[in-house]
C-alpha cells in the first residue's frame, strides 16, 4: 500500500510564479548557487529580490564567485540588437566603464583566461606562493601595484612560468626570452662591475 504524503500548501503556485525558473536555475545549475535560506525557501527568494523590473532585466551578482544573496544581487537591464533597446556606442562605453568599476574581479578573471589560460584564483595562488614578490628580483610589490605583477609565459607553448615585476618582465622580453643572452648579460655585468 502506498503511503500518501501531504502536498505543500503552495503546490503548483511556485511553478507559475514569474521568478520560479530564475530561482530554480540559480539554485541548481549555477556553480555558487544562492544562499541556503533562499535555496530552501522560494518565497524568501521572491521577497529578497523583489519583482522583476521588466522583461529586459536579468538577475546578476555583484561578486560572481559568491552565492547570490540579499547583499549580492542586482537587476541588470539586458540589451540586444534589434529589440529597439540597443545601446549606442557611447552608451555601451559608459555601461562598460560602470561594469568594470562594479565588477573588477570579473573583468580581471576574463582577461587572465583570455590572455594566459588561467583564472584569477590561479593567479592569486601563484601570487601567494611567490610571497607577493617578483619571481626574479624578489622585490615585494606594494598594495597599489598588486595588480601589476605581470604573468610571464612562454610565447611558444603558452605555459605560465610565474609572476614578474614590470622591469623584470620587460628585461626578459628585450632579451627575446633567450637564456644564453641573459647569461651573457650577467657575465658582462660581473666582468665590468
What does this entry look like structurally?
It is a single chain. 44% of the residues lie in helices and 9% in strands. It has a two-stranded antiparallel ribbon with strand order 1-2. It has a two-stranded antiparallel ribbon with strand order 3-4. The chain has 2 domains: 90 residues, no CATH class; 75 residues, His-Me finger endonuclease fold. The chain starts with 12 loop residues before the first helix and ends with a helix. The chain contains 9 helices and 4 strands. The model has no long low-confidence stretch (mean pLDDT 83). The protein is mainly alpha-helical and 193 residues long.
Observed structural traits:
two-stranded antiparallel ribbon, 193 residues, 4 strands, mainly alpha
User: Which strand order do you get reading across the main beta sheet?
Assistant: 1-2
First-residue to last-residue Cα separation: 94 Å
Assembly state of the chains shown: single chain
- Beta-strand percentage range: 5-15%
Main sheet overview: 2 strands, antiparallel
Q: List the secondary-structure elements in sequence, H or E.
A: HHHHEEHHHEEHH
Structural class by SSE content: mainly alpha
**Helix content range of the residues, please?**
40-55%
Tally of domains: 2
Unreliable stretches (pLDDT < 50, length at least 5) are none
Mean pLDDT across residues:
83
Number of strands: 4
Categorize the overall geometry: elongated
Using only CA atoms, what is the Rg? 25 Å
Give the count of helical stretches: 9
Amino acid at each position: 500500500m502506498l503511503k500518501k504524503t501531504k502536498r505543500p500548501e503552495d503546490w503548483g503556485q511556485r511553478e507559475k510564479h514569474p521568478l520560479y525558473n530564475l530561482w530554480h536555475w540559480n539554485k541548481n545549475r549555477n556553480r555558487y548557487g544562492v544562499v541556503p535560506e533562499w535555496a530552501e525557501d522560494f518565497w524568501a527568494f521572491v521577497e529578497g529580490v523583489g519583482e522583476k523590473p521588466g522583461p529586459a532585466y536579468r538577475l546578476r551578482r555583484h561578486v560572481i564567485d559568491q552565492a547570490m544573496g540579499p547583499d549580492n544581487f542586482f537587476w541588470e537591464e539586458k540589451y540586444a540588437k534589434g529589440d529597439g533597446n540597443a545601446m549606442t556606442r557611447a552608451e555601451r562605453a559608459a555601461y562598460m566603464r560602470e561594469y568594470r568599476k562594479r565588477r573588477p574581479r570579473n573583468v580581471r578573471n576574463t582577461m587572465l583566461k583570455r590572455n594566459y589560460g588561467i583564472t584569477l584564483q590561479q593567479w592569486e595562488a601563484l601570487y601567494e606562493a611567490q610571497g607577493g614578490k617578483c619571481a626574479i628580483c624578489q622585490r615585494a610589490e606594494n598594495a597599489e601595484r598588486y595588480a601589476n605583477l605581470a604573468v610571464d609565459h612562454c610565447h611558444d607553448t603558452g605555459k605560465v612560468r610565474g609572476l614578474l615585476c614590470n622591469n623584470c618582465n620587460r628585461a626578459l622580453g628585450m632579451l627575446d626570452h633567450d637564456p644564453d643572452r641573459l647569461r651573457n648579460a650577467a657575465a658582462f655585468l660581473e666582468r665590468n662591475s
